[in-house]
Specification:
Order of helices and strands: HHEEEHEEEEEEHEEEHEEHEHEHHHEEHH
Shape: elongated
Strand content: 15-25%
Number of domains: 2
Radius of gyration: 37 Å
Structural class: alpha+beta
Number of strands: 18
Number of helices: 12
Distance between the termini: 29 Å
Largest sheet: 11 strands, mixed
Length: about 500
């Protein structure tokens, strides 16, 4: 009886039911779209942070660069020995640690032992400046013969007289040098799942093995390999040490700031930093307790700077940051406002429809229908309207999210990095001593993934909307009396 009457009444009031369903659908669709775009923003920000950290890295521990001592510039210097040949080729590599003041390797074990830390691994960031070229010696020549100028002035090295031999002059000679700077990171080959190499994918060759702690091999980033025309098996030298390329790596998210990866022990030898690291990568046992772990490390290990993903997120600017703020604040509040309006309109329309069914409900009560049965009938009709609206809303919302993903609008993320170790400069590719602050701009394609949680939320909203409308209409229907039906008969 309930189902038959419900079907008949909905069929009689198709237009009214459709208006109520569409109102709920628009509100639900907006909620799905905003939720999906917000999830896409969060995913895009995660990609940006992964390019700065490594996959699975929750925080980094660094130490700020100390001020240079008086009389020391802290900059690179090159010394070439003088030789007697007229044209001499010279080459020199200057290897310097970067990203902050070096930390003792023993601190890695100490950090790993802190409460809430699952694992920790150290890395050493180096900057190599290679200068190569040649000096050409000039030749000393003396000017002889008389001069046509009476005063002899204006002649280089000329005397005051108008004739006689001039002083020897150096002619020709000079120097021609090329300067090439690139970044090198020493990684712990026994723990590659955490740290700078974790965010790289080997596209050619292979990565390090745990036994290659002292082997002269390297993994090269794809962009640097393309620039230098390196392939697997190619060789190169750093400060006279010959390395063999065993793998080409591509970053999982964005461009890598590191050109070369070598075993940590070799990097320490090249950088004259025995048993030292510049960055400690940390993974927490519980991602929800990162702030607590940060305080634990700062409290027990003085003089260090602990940087979390939340700290890095605050430094990301550009259209990604602006769009994320709009989606989080304006978008969500707009969704709530539209949804509340849709619920209110559905409730008012349902109540208005009940008021036009005075004769119907009054007659039903006269036939013996109790108030709860009349209320159940109205709530049932509203629930069906709500479910129809939910289905339409899910279809519209998923379609809008799919359109955003198909268009994939480009968003930019600007990440400021500063020298001196703290913050983002503390990781690989960070600023070295005296390096000016820079900004690295990344371009991220926006997607709008729709999760099962979002669909479940939409269904819940549809049911809630139907209940609110039904409750209001049912309450009004339950107050009707059989006498009202008799008054309405003309």
């Amino acid at each position: 009886m309930f189902g038959i009457y419900l079907k008949r009444e909905l069929g009689r009031r198709k237009k009214a039911a459709l208006v109520i369903a569409l109102g709920l659908a628009l509100g639900i669709a907006l909620v799905i779209t905003v939720s999906s775009v917000s999830a896409g923003m969060s995913k895009a920000q995660d990609k940006v942070l992964q390019s700065l950290y490594g996959l699975g890295t929750d925080m980094t521990v660094t130490k700020a660069q100390s001020a240079p001592t008086s009389g020391g510039s802290g900059g690179p210097s090159f010394k070439f020995g003088a030789k007697s040949s007229s044209s001499t080729k010279q080459s020199s590599d200057r290897v310097m640690t970067q990203g902050g003041q070096a930390l003792k390797s023993t601190l890695v074990t100490k950090v790993a032992g802190q409460k809430g830390v699952e694992s920790a691994v150290g890395a050493l960031s180096l900057n190599v400046t290679k200068v190569d070229g040649s000096f050409t010696q000039g030749k000393a020549k003396s000017t002889t013969g008389s001069s046509n100028n009476s005063g002899g002035q204006g002649q280089p090295g000329g005397g005051s007289g108008g004739s006689g031999g001039g002083q020897p002059q150096v002619q020709g000679g000079g120097a021609n040098f090329n300067v090439n700077s690139y970044s090198v990171v020493g990684v712990d080959v026994a723990h590659q799942g955490l740290g700078p190499l974790a965010s790289m994918k080997i596209t050619s060759g292979k990565t390090f093995t745990s036994s290659q702690t002292g082997t002269k091999v390297a993994v090269v980033s794809k962009s640097y390999a393309k620039e230098k025309k390196y392939k697997v098996g190619s060789t190169f030298k750093i400060s006279g040490t010959k390395f063999t390329v065993i793998g080409i790596a591509t970053p999982d998210s964005s461009e890598s700031s590191t050109d070369l990866f070598i075993p940590l022990k070799l990097a320490q030898t090249l950088g004259d930093a025995k048993n030292e690291v510049t960055t400690i990568y940390v993974k927490a046992t519980d991602s929800k307790q990162i702030s607590t772990v940060k305080k634990e490390i700062q409290s027990n290990i003085s003089g260090t700077t602990v940087t979390t993903s939340a700290d890095l997120a605050s430094t990301v600017s550009g259209s990604l940051s602006t769009a994320s703020s709009l989606a989080t604040s304006v978008g969500k509040w707009l969704s709530i406002a539209v949804l509340a309006a849709a619920f209110l309109v559905a409730a008012l329309l349902t109540s208005s429809a009940v008021s036009r069914r005075v004769r119907e409900f009054g007659t039903l009560k006269a036939l013996g229908w109790p108030s709860r049965k009349v209320t159940r009938q109205v709530v049932g009709e509203s629930m069906v309207n709500g479910l129809i609206g939910g289905a339409l809303g899910i279809a519209i919302g998923v379609g809008a999210a799919y359109a955003v993903t198909a268009i994939s609008p480009k968003l930019t993320a600007q990440m400021g990095s500063t020298g001196g170790g703290g913050g983002m400069g503390g990781g690989p590719g960070g600023g070295g001593p005296g390096q000016q602050s820079t900004q690295n701009t990344l371009e991220i394609a926006l997607t709008a993934p729709v999760s099962l949680t979002t669909i479940a939320l939409a269904v819940g909203l549809a049911v809630t909307g139907g209940l609110i409308a039904g409750a209001m209409g049912g309450w009004r229907a339950s107050r009707m009396r059989p006498a009202d039906a008799l008054r309405s008969v003309s």
